[in-house]
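The data are passed on as follows:
___
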Amino acid sequence: MGTEEGNEQVLASRKHLVFAYYVTGHGFGHATRVVEVVRHLIYAGHDVHVVTGAPDFVFTTEIQSPKLFLRKLVLDCGAVQADALTVDRLASLEKYSETAVVPRASILATEVEWLNSIKADLVVSDVVPVACRAAADAGIRSVCVTNFSWDFIYAEYVMAAGHHHRTTVWQIAEDYSHCEFLIRLPGYCPMPAFRDVMDVPLVVRRLHKSRKELIDDSKEEQRVIWKLKSNDGTLKLTKYNHYVSLISWILQNGPTKRDNEVRKELGIGDDVKVVILNFGGQPGGWNLKEDCLPSGWLCLVCGASDDQNLPSNFIKLAKAAYTPDLIAASDCMLGKIGYGTVSEALAYKLPFVFVRRDYFNEEPFLRNMLEYYQGGVEMIRRDLLTGRWKPYLERAISLKPCYEGGINGGEVAARILQDTAVGKNYTADKLSGARRLRDAIVLGYQLQRVPGRDICIPDWYANAENEFGLRTGSPTAEMTETRSHIMSYTEDFDILHGDLQGLSDTMTFLKSLAELDAVYDSGKNKEKHWIRERMAAAGIFNWEEEIFVARAPGRLDVVGGIADYSGSLVLQMPIREACHVAVQTNHPSKHKLWKHTQARQNAKRQGPTPVLQIVSYGSELSNRGPTFDMDLTDFMDGGQPISFQKAKEYFARDPSQRWAAYVAGAILVLMTELGMRFENSISMLVSSAVPEGKGVSSSASVEVASMSAIAAAHGSYDNMKSFELGGHFHSKIEGLDISPRELALLCQKVENHIVGAPCGVMDQMASACGEANKLLAMICQPAEVIGLVDIPNHIRFWGIDSGIRHRYAALYFKMLPDSILGEAFLDQYSDHSDPVTIIDKKRTYGVRAAARHPIYETFRVKAFKALLTSAASDEQLTALGELLYQCHYSYSACGLGSDGTDRLVQLVQQMQHKKKSNTEDGTLYGAKITGGGSGGTVCVIGRNCLRSSQQILEIQQRYKGATGYMPFLFEGSSPGAGKFGYLRIRRRHPPNFN
């Protein structure tokens, strides 16, 4: 339901009203937009009680009225930030529990009593959940005004923090469901907890100090902005028409000249460029240097600490400085994205250089709005902290922000609130409370980008799956798509080496490469969130030169799982979903550089040096930056490669770019282990369809594909040899002499020592050495491939994702204690011979259950392998299924189970015993949790028939009905990186970007 902007400027009420306005405890942004709504309500003659934790000056600077009442109270904590740019997800959930869940009963009792004491006519929330419930308990209507809600923000945090936090999201969603309706602001996130929605324009704070050159001829209108008239008890708020048209012109067209009162007060001349540094009052401790800025620039610093010394070209602003006036006086803004900064940057047509925040899920929606109106430039966090600001600032002032929408959202919202308080009904009761509550609870899980979701979110956010093959489709659709891509890639590229092997995802990847030139057509696809990724990718490749493409799949842990650490036999199946990596090398003097990379090189004055530039598709889906770049000389120290520990610290500096360790780490490992040196620059494009956090080795597929592509681009690709592995032939690159097994071991070093994840080698081996429709039989200690086991035609494996993020945590059995304290173990044994894990001295470790699992798992895996080669029968499948059930329960005994995976296994059991008759053969036979346990994916074994597929889909729907989460289905297999080899391609008709 939307509101129309018109010329009506009257707020009318038959009586004096009392509003209780609750403001969330997260930052100043909410308080600053609340000010604008409250100001209009007070000017209409109403009392407004604001419940907030924000400082008084945020309100009193803008409103001087006895009708404003401030009550200092925080009823939610928002998102707890580790620093100005990083949200601590677990701490946020724990803090919310401490603030709003534990004292909930007393909060409700206190707020109900208070609301009755002030005789509130309406409760307004931005966007405090418990306020809606308190209003309902007090018998008062409530309305929310916001662009996001905390059930949406927290739901995805639960994925990382653990399912036991789900009750927090349930409670928040239930509180919101008591709200009458939502007044929704632009840049909004999905908010299905609310029954009805009314859209309003941007809520933007007005200017206090207007531009003199624009308003000298309207001094009377400048002095008298608002005039209250009373006639027979009716209050009317009237604007002078001339003032309205004047201010509207100013805000819509922006400054043509930055000569205004603020600049004059600060002594800033006309020829000086000004950037305002606005990180929500949290830049304390940053090393701000004079050479951060281009020559002739000044920086206005918001929120600097009192003891912080600033260079001469930085000006420290007062804590209570009025930001809108400063924004209007500046040429661009540098800061983090929030509603306040984005709305004011758009309203005043100010270019915004932003640094992304990790794990604040509101940001992608605001960033999309900012970039849609051509007002944003993303700065890499590393460049922010090291002072490489110049190329970003210079790029920003060349932009022409084009927002033309309304900016009177505060007035429109105030009118709606007043009408609601006097009894007007805006609700339609379109959805039941139960439906709204269910949708709200599961939304964070839906945002894990799975197919089949039925919740409406903006197209630009959902299309990434379809564009980059991140979804499973019907066989008919895939065959049609495959035929289309075959025709396309043969027209676009010459395949100089390698074979696509009929893989539709590889054809899709090649098609995406061929279409990169389309991003330069500004009239196409400007609403797609991934346009920035594609433009970055198109800008790093020289289309007249060769490109090397490698592919590595994820894996389904059929049986063996965590026993790999203890030397058990494991059976792994490479799945259909895979990661593709394209690599191109060029001489540094001919390499195409991003502007900030070029600026960094110019600053060093050393001439062209080798650089690495990486683009990663799908960045919006996992809270990470889309690009990474570095000088390859950063990997050298005194003529030798730096240590793995230094590299780990290097990549950990910027959480939004930490993902690059999985990719770039391959280069350092090749330098250290094989003595390689990289004299040319490297461009890489990474596109992975392997879902993250689901226990199917997304990280291993990225590592294996990256190292394979780098090795191919630097090897002797004209001289290929073959070698036999388990009766099957694989290719290896003679120049680098890397076999798939060796490649896997090198990739394990990347993950263990550079990423810092204590994993075994099973995942990398499966991704590198596996083959389609076969199980890789291997022993992970010491990483030996036993062979490849054919999957019989009558047997099929599926993976069903539980939606719970994957988390890590023999003869002498009677001699083992039930448990042991870490400190006691170290005292007795000194070490555990694992270089990548650490024993916590204060933790008590379960010993017997953990030891029991690998002992019996070894037997189960051997039995499973033997049964696969036995005669096909229902008894064979029953026995295989029983072994999987035993594996699952053994996991649980180790403390590695989860509610989600247990539920999926139970659903398989129920389906297994649901036969139409006693003579009917079964279809599904067993299931188990996979990989490292504690969530992730369940492996299911069944008969290869249509009925089995139907039952898997039924389980998917039942799980969704019980939990609200639509599981990702893994079905089908594909070749490992060794079997795929690599492609060497050249663009047939290079695009002309001139």
